[in-house]
Write a structure and sequence with these properties.
The chain is an alpha/beta fold. It has helices at residues 14-24, 60-63, 68-73, 135-144, 159-169, 190-202, 245-250, 297-311, 380-393, and strands spanning 2-10, 32-35, 76-79, 84-88, 93-96, 101-109, 113-115, 130-131, 150-154, 173-178, 205-209, 213-216, 220-223, 228-230, 233-236, 240-242, 254-255, 259-261, 274-276, 281-285, 290-292, 323-328, 331-337, 344-350, 355-361, 367-374. The strands form six sheets. Strands 1, 2, 3, 4, 5, 6 and 19 form a seven-stranded mixed sheet that branches. Helix 1 packs parallel to helix 8 (297-311). The chain starts with a strand and ends in a 13-residue tail after the last helix.
Length: 406
């Protein structure tokens, strides 16, 4: 069977929903079709590692990206539990695993990523533990938490610590293992890392830092310090792998660890009728002056909107300052920008009080990233906006003071 659509969107995440809206903002009538491998209508992932775990009343409706009637109102068609196995660029059609074809004029690849498993060489068969990506993953973990007593989480990025904070809050004996010397090692300064470690420990998390997992056997995790940690629930939050196979199959420019190469309009550099957004988009970031891909909810949401608008003729470049956010225990965090190394930092406020802004500069002293943590979430929006403004203005950290964030 074959059908046709003006706009074909492959992927069921927030980038796809935002792209559909971006298209509709510029083209009210052209058919829009989202093809999603997930059996559920598109949903937002950030709540799944936060209060979803501790609130059994939360359902798919509470994390849905849009209410179901939005799709009907905006004439957005959605195919669920459907996988695209190939793209014929020359003839402009996608091939489904069923063998059916979908003809398209413009195509968006927003296939996202999948969680990494713990390496097979350290795990016995059947002890891989849970990964954490989909609604089904989160629901399964929440069910296991009803009877689990000892929870071990591996991974010190955003996801692992968020899950650990929920498990500790609900009274589980919680062990968090991270290879780095502190949480958020890839971007946090030593001072911030020390604060995070101490905060988690003070809230009951058994933190195993600067250790590798060497084996998982008989419901015990063994670490490189020759210690073992028993569990009845093991969760691996050790990063993601990009779903780049469609790009590889159809021959557009991609790198397995970086994504599909696109220009500033999120348009494939190899095919003017194909766009990419979200985790799989390897894009030129003129604000941060680098080529990269980003793995976060807001990046996917923003890129989807721009890609969709451009598919419908908007011709708008993507120019957003990276934005990450997290919640753990009673604290809220926002991060704007990016800095792979902390050449210089300034702290306004107090780590001790858990109310602060930390500014990161590059080797020449210019502001590249800011992190703010507070118990009052409403404080963070104006700080986020100010950080975005200052990063775009290319100011020096040494020229800033607490008054700039008043």
């Amino acid at each position: 069977m074959a059908e046709s659509t003006k706009y074909l969107i492959i992927g069921g995440g927030v980038a796809s929903v935002s792209a559909a809206k971006g298209i509709r903002d510029h083209d009210k009538e052209g058919r829009v079709l989202i093809v999603s491998a997930d059996p559920l209508m598109p949903y937002d992932r950030p709540p799944l590692s936060k209060n979803f775990l501790s609130n059994e009343a939360m359902t798919h409706d509470d994390v849905s990206s849009k209410y179901d009637h939005w799709y009907d109102t905006n004439k957005i068609d959605v195919m669920l539990a459907t996988t695209v196995k190939a793209i014929d660029r020359r003839n402009h059609f996608a091939v489904l695993t069923s063998g059916d074809h979908i003809q398209y004029e413009k195509l968006l690849i927003a296939t996202g990523s999948r969680p990494r498993q713990l390496p097979g060489n350290v795990t016995e068969s059947g002890s891989m533990g849970h990964v954490y990506r989909t609604y089904a993953d989160a629901f399964a973990v929440r069910e296991k938490l009803k009877t689990a007593k000892n929870v071990v989480i591996v991974g010190g990025g955003f996801l692992g610590p968020e899950i650990a904070s929920q498990c500790a809050t609900t009274g589980h004996h919680t062990t968090l293992i991270t290879q780095g010397p502190h949480l958020w090692e890839k971007f946090a300064s030593t001072g911030l890392g020390k604060f995070l470690n101490e905060y988690y420990i003070s809230h009951g998390v058994h933190l195993i830092a600067d250790r590798k997992v060497t084996a998982v056997f008989e419901e015990k995790v063994y670490t490189s310090d020759n210690q073992h940690h028993p569990f009845d629930l093991l969760i691996a939050a050790v990063g993601i792998e990009l779903n780049y196979e469609l790009a590889e199959e159809c021959g557009i420019s991609f790198l397995p660890n970086d994504g599909i190469q696109v220009n500033e309009y999120l348009q494939s550099t190899a095919d003017k009728d194909i766009y990419a957004a979200g985790d799989v988009a390897f894009f030129r970031d003129f604000v941060m002056d680098k080529q990269w891909h980003l793995e976060h909810h807001l990046n996917a949401q923003w890129q989807g909107a721009v890609a969709g608008a451009n598919m419908a003729g908007a011709n708008t470049p993507y120019e957003k300052v990276p934005y990450f956010f997290s919640d753990f225990f009673d604290l809220h965090m926002i991060l704007r920008g990016y800095s792979p190394t902390a050449e210089f930092t300034a702290v306004f406020g107090s780590f001790e009080d858990a109310e602060f802004i930390e500014l990161y500069a590059d080797a020449t002293g210019f502001l590249k990233m800011g992190i703010s943590i507070s118990r009052e979430e409403k404080k963070l929006d104006p700080i986020s906006d100010k950080l975005e403004e200052l990063i775009k203005k290319k100011v020096k950290v040494s020229d800033l003071s607490p008054a700039d964030f008043a």
